[in-house]
Amino acid sequence: MAILVDENTRLVVQGITGRDGSFHTLEMMQYGTAVVGGVTPGKGGQTFHGRNGESVPIFNSMDKAVSETGANTSVVYVPPAFASSAIEEAADAGVALVVAITEGIPVLDMARAHAFARDHATRVLGPNCPGIISPGKAKVGIIPDQIVAPGPVGVISRSGTLTYEAVIQLTNAGIGQTTCVGIGGDPLIGTSFVDALEAFALDSETKAVVMIGEIG
């Protein structure tokens, strides 16, 4: 099994036409994640094309994207000034999980966004996080998929680069992972170590968890 993302994940990319959004959308699609739509206000009706000829519809709003695609997850590649609004829009549209990659979001903005997400029963991962990957099932974010392998160990980390280091060492030792989670390094994050540990505790295939903090 896995936690939070798996083969049933249906992903919308917020900021799909930006530099980071478009690049990582291609990477996520290449890994096999079901990217069912993108959102960029003013570009609704356009199409994003994958490396293998896939077509992903672009919408003006999350509400439209979710209603048209049945998406249950979003990932945010939106500039800091607009990222908290993107998180709130995703929660209002009814997705179960929002993965916020953006760093530098004003703290007060995130305080409001986290409260809004909780009121709408939406889990936020991040902000300022590398995302999440369940090896062989789904990738949401920027974690390099070349370093992971399926197996029985969960990984939780505040630091993006230390996440990669821990995963590489596990994989090189022949120890695969159920899910690797970067919870984010900002002062206010939506999913804590405890939250992630509780999710892993409910996963029958996770036999151990590596947990990594970060100085500061």
Automatic annotation (TrEMBL):
The record's section on SUPFAM superfamilies has: NAD(P)-binding Rossmann-fold domains (SSF51735), Succinyl-CoA synthetase domains (SSF52210)
- UniProt cross-references to SMART domains, sorted A to Z: CoA_binding
User: One Pfam match, by short name?
Assistant: Ligase_CoA
Q: PROSITE patterns from the xrefs?
A: SUCCINYL_COA_LIG_1
Show the GO MF annotations: nucleotide binding; succinate-CoA ligase (ADP-forming) activity; succinate-CoA ligase (GDP-forming) activity
Q: List residues of the CoA-binding domain.
A: 4-105
Q: Which GO terms describe its biological process?
A: tricarboxylic acid cycle
- Give me the Gene Ontology terms describing cellular component: succinate-CoA ligase complex (ADP-forming)
UniProt KW keywords? Ligase, Nucleotide-binding
Name the record gives this protein: CoA-binding domain-containing protein
